[in-house]
């Protein structure tokens, strides 16, 4: 007999209803990531949605710790940047949250077309 897979709880309905992140947007990002990506199963965006939720939760917890260390009750972008710099697994985000010498943040702003 076949055993349930690692993501079966996500797909079998134990997490049902509207998702916290829009699946259509996730699917659009997945397709834009590579020209070779043509078809995406219905389950893949659900798994990505859950992964994004977990990522946001973890980064928020670490950012909140920085807020509490500064004896504040409002989370600021500097707290997020400090959490990213202090956490090795978030090193890929350092160029995005870095603060330039002129005080501008390193977040790239896309022009609306």
TrEMBL record:
It comes from the Eukaryota. It holds the Pfam family CBFD_NFYB_HMF. The keyword Nucleus applies. GO terms for cellular component: nucleus. GO terms for molecular function: DNA-binding transcription factor activity, RNA polymerase II-specific; protein heterodimerization activity; RNA polymerase II cis-regulatory region sequence-specific DNA binding. It is found in: Nucleus. Keywords: DNA-binding, Nucleus, Transcription, Transcription regulation. Heterotrimeric transcription factor composed of three components, NF-YA, NF-YB and NF-YC. NF-YB and NF-YC must interact and dimerize for NF-YA association and DNA binding. Stimulates the transcription of various genes by recognizing and binding to a CCAAT motif in promoters. PANTHER family: HAP5 SUBUNIT OF HAP COMPLEX, HISTONE-LIKE TRANSCRIPTION FACTOR CCAAT-RELATED. Belongs to the NFYC/HAP5 subunit family. This is Uncharacterized protein. It comes from Daucus carota subsp. sativus (Carrot).
